[in-house]
Amino acid sequence: MTASEPVLVDLDLLEQIHDVALGRASWKDILTCLKSEFSAEVGLLAVYEVSPDQARGFATTDPDGSRWQQYAEHFAAIDPFAARIRSGQAPPGLILTGEDLVPARVFCASEYFNDWFRPNGLRYTARAYIRIRDQLNLQLGMPRAAAAGPYTAAEVARLQRYFNHISRALRIADALATRTLQPDFDRVARTYGLTPAETRLIETLTECGSLRRSAERTHRSYYTLRAQLRAVFLKMGTRSQTELMRMIHKVTSDSPEAEGRHSNDA
Q1: Same domain, 40 and 110
Q2: Least CB-packed of 29, 30, 73, 249 within 10 Å?
Q3: pLDDT tens, 25-51?
Q4: Collapsed DSSP state (helix, strand, coil) of residue 182
Q5: End-of-domain residue from the set 177, 200, 225
């Protein structure tokens, strides 16, 4: 795959990823789609502090998650991929294959491979992690069987696109979880000079989560709303719906009413 070739992804899946941050989908739904698209045996998202053997929660496509609870309790401590992450040799935010992280001959001779990976029918993997905040990290794992073959460059590029959106959605979900204020759309409109129609659009978009659902809700043309959204992006100096939601909540949390509420709570 060359740099000039487009990376084709499922746009509906990207929309679903951002729906998770708004409480309209689950990470298990996302992992199930990724598992199918990349012929993986399982999909895993693990939240942990400092290193994966300190997992404090995870989502998985496993029916009961028991294998991955066992991983968190024991095998994460001897996971050679996790060791590369702990040592800082795996850059955050980047999808890496098992071969990128550990030479195949070293991996296949490891206790982790022989006692965990192989008994669970696994051979290849693609992984990435991000730091959400402070010492809180999240790791994506998409291991698959030998019959599926190693991840190709095209698959890695496609999974990277998805992971970029997963990372943004996770940060939004984390930020929203710490806020109880309702968005102050009037203040956003005054701050950025939005028209009444543009203000109604961002309010509907916040509620619906996508432009197409907003068009259905308001019985308006998708293309008309898309043109309005571009105008909103220009006025607010943003380039994506993710950044737009972040800015709406920032303006709300910076308002005098919010400051007063925080003072009262304190």
Answers
A1: yes
A2: 73
A3: 888 899 999 999 999 999 988 876 655
A4: coil
A5: 177
User: Both 75 and 123 in a single domain?
Assistant: yes
Helix ranges, the chain (H): 11-21, 27-37, 66-73, 80-86, 98-101, 104-108, 111-112, 153-177, 185-192, 196-208, 211-218, 222-236, 241-253, 256-265
Spatial distance between the Cα atoms of 2 and 24, rounded to a whole number of angstroms: 36
Q: Please, are residues 54 and 209 in contact by the beta-carbon 8 Å criterion?
A: no
CA distance 37 to 142: 11
How far is it, in rounded angstroms, from Cα 162 to Cα 148?
A: 20
Q: For residue 20, how many other CB atoms are within 10 A of its CB?
A: 21
Burial class (CB in 10 A: 0-12, 13-18, 19+), 176: middle
Question: 11: closest CA among 165, 203, 204?
Answer: 165
Domains of the chain: total:
2
Q: Which residues of 192-217 are buried (b: 16+ CB within 10 A; e: fewer)?
A: bebeeebbbbbbbbbebbbbebbbee
What is the side-by-side order of every strand in the sheet holding 126-133? 55-60, 44-49, 136-141, 126-133, 96-97
Q: If you search the block for the tokens 């206790």, which residue do you land on?
A: 111
Q: Tell me whether residue 111 is exposed, middle or buried, using C-beta atoms within 10 angstroms of its C-beta: 0 to 12, 13 to 18, 19 or more.
A: exposed
* φ, ψ dihedrals at 125, nearest 5°: -155, 160
Q: Do 131 and 66 reside in the same domain of the chain?
A: yes
Judge if pTM exceeds 0.70.
no
Exposed/middle/buried for residue 56 (C-beta within 10 Å: 0-12, 13-18, 19+) = exposed
Residue range 163-182, pLDDT digits in tens: 999 998 888 777 766 555 67
Instruction: Check whether residue 62 and residue 193 sit in a common domain.
Output: no
